[in-house]
């Protein structure tokens, strides 16, 4: 039986030089709730999510993605993952142990082949959360995370082999080859995706809204606050989800989305979608056409690699 330890995406952790500006953006403009913090550290939850937090902000002289975190089915799965990674020669940041972040739990951290830090944890306490009301334009949950890689094929194979992700769809160009791999760990179309980029970095973090009305209201709120819209509003073909891409104050791309496709996994066959077809990028035709300049908006700055964050 295939080893599939991962249940869902938990959180994305970012480090930035201007901590207070970043903190204000995620807590006010973006609509998350600050639930914990320390000197130079802030944790943000989504009101509709049982996760203790979906974004962590840390003050550092260097901008970076500290880590991406996934949930595991059990502590035993975390232990088995550690054994499997060890046999494969994967470099661990730390062995399975009790976590001292909000909600506790039991987890492991390691470097993926690109050098980014990955955390996998189980038994994290569930946060009290609530139903997001009609026209309440704040994120329900963290939807998915996409990363840039110079070797997307190798990274795709790593997450499939070692973490049990499944390939859902591929974006490709007849001139440039495969450009993005969508990976799932549940019936949701994707929780993680890998884009071909000029360097290793965060491509974007996406936040699910209650519905299209709330998605559009959130897009409008961000625009009125002066947040830079880099692409959208529109609706992708792969995943069938809406998109509005913005830059946070440090140039990380964050997305409002909704209505991500839920698959019948037993019946699903991975598709291939040509990015040169405008419908692939935006079924509605409301966003600017995909171009080299639009694509560059999600390249981000080169990340800090094979160096674990201090917390």
From TrEMBL:
Cleavable signal peptide: none
Segments forming domain VOC: 8-123, 141-259
Region Disordered: start-end pairs: 282-311
A Pfam family: Glyoxalase
The protein's name: Oxidoreductase
Lineage of the organism: Bacteria, Bacillati, Actinomycetota, Actinomycetes, Kitasatosporales
């Amino acid at each position: 039986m295939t080893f599939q330890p991962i249940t869902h995406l938990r959180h994305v952790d970012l480090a930035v030089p201007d901590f207070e500006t970043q903190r204000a953006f995620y807590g006010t403009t973006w609509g998350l709730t600050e639930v914990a913090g320390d000197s130079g550290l802030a944790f943000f939850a989504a009101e509709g999510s049982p996760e203790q937090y979906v974004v962590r902000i840390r003050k550092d002289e260097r901008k970076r993605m500290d880590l991406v975190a996934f949930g595991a089915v059990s502590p035993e799965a975390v232990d088995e993952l550690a054994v499997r990674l060890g046999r494969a020669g994967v470099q661990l940041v730390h062995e399975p142990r009790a976590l001292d972040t909000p909600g506790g739990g039991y987890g492991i951290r390691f470097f993926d082949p690109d050098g980014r830090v990955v955390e996998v944890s189980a038994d994290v306490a569930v946060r009290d959360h609530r139903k997001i009301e009609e026209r309440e334009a704040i994120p329900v949950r963290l939807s998915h995370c996409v990363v840039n890689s110079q070797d997307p094929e190798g990274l795709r194979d790593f997450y499939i082999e070692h973490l049990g992700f499944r390939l859902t769809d591929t974006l490709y160009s007849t001139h440039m080859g495969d450009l993005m791999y969508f990976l799932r760990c549940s019936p949701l179309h994707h929780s993680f995706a890998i884009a071909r980029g000029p360097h290793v970095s965060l491509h974007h973090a996406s936040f699910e809204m209650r519905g299209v009305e709330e998605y559009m209201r959130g897009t409008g709120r961000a625009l009125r606050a002066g947040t830079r819209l880099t692409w959208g509003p529109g609706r992708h073909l792969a995943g069938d989800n809406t998109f509005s891409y913005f830059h946070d104050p440090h140039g990380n791309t964050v997305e409002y989305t909704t209505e991500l496709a839920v698959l019948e996994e037993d019946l699903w066959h991975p598709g291939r979608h040509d990015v040169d077809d405008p419908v692939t990028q935006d079924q509605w035709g409301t966003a600017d056409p995909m171009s080299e300049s639009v694509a560059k908006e999600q390249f981000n700055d080169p990340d800090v690699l094979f160096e674990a964050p201090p917390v």
